[in-house]
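$ fold --in a.seq
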Amino acid sequence: MRVCDWSAAPLIRPAAGALAVAALCLVWSVARLARAGTVPDDPAPGDVLAVPHVALPAPTGARGVPLDDDPFSPDRRAPARRYAFPGDVSPADAGAMPAPRPTLLGTAVASDGAGFATARLGDDAPKILHIGDHLGPYTLRAVARGRASFARADGEPFDIGADTPSASR
């Protein structure tokens, strides 16, 4: 391809013009850099934008109490009571509320004794449970036709039938 063929292409002329402008900018920048010389170490006081000194408030903890200690000091200890957001239930209070009993929706038992149960806890979505699976604080221990045996977290067992409501038990 000849040079005159290239110049006839529709995008070559704008690209060549942009290249020429970039080359001129480069030459101009290098010339200014050469004339600039050295930068003084300490600028004149009027040349620097002065930022007013603002006194920051003392840091406070989550409850508004000022922090006296460095949070990263090696002799710092954990507080006696863990911080909780307003409305949170503490672990001690959570143990006081009884968990709702599971509702057994159905069971399936195979001829070899294996099976599963479909149950839900409160208003949660139903779950398919195999022996040993957990549903909240309860563990499925055994499955029979229309009945399932659960164990509480403390190990106490109880049975639920699919035809009887769990709230009455």
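$ fold --in b.seq
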Amino acid sequence: WRKFYLYPVQALSLAAAGVATVNLQFQNDAPFYCLQIVGEAYTTATPPALVSNPSVLVNIIDSGSNFPLFASPVNMEQMSGTAQLPYVLPMPYRFNRNSTAVFQITNNYNATLSIYLVLGGYKKFTATPASLSSVG
């Protein structure tokens, strides 16, 4: 059976020209099939402002298979979409249980940004839980 699931990547405040690596640990209960990527970047001003083209480069590496999802880092806007219109992968990408996705992020914007990324998809379980087996 399948269960819809969201994996938020740790929120990140990244200075102009800053580079960061963020690890996302997948849970051990089931593999995760990623269908969508959502990302947003905000200025750190008060109040924060959404940056429509943040000039942030992202690469995602599946550490379980050592497979990069992109040939080289891509602009966040091109690989993530928004909450209103998320980037939908052409086919689900499977992250094995207990594996890690490594996000390499570079801020080429001219100010410090707060960066948010979320992977949307489903977990695929091999056994039906007892709580669902009696549902008719």
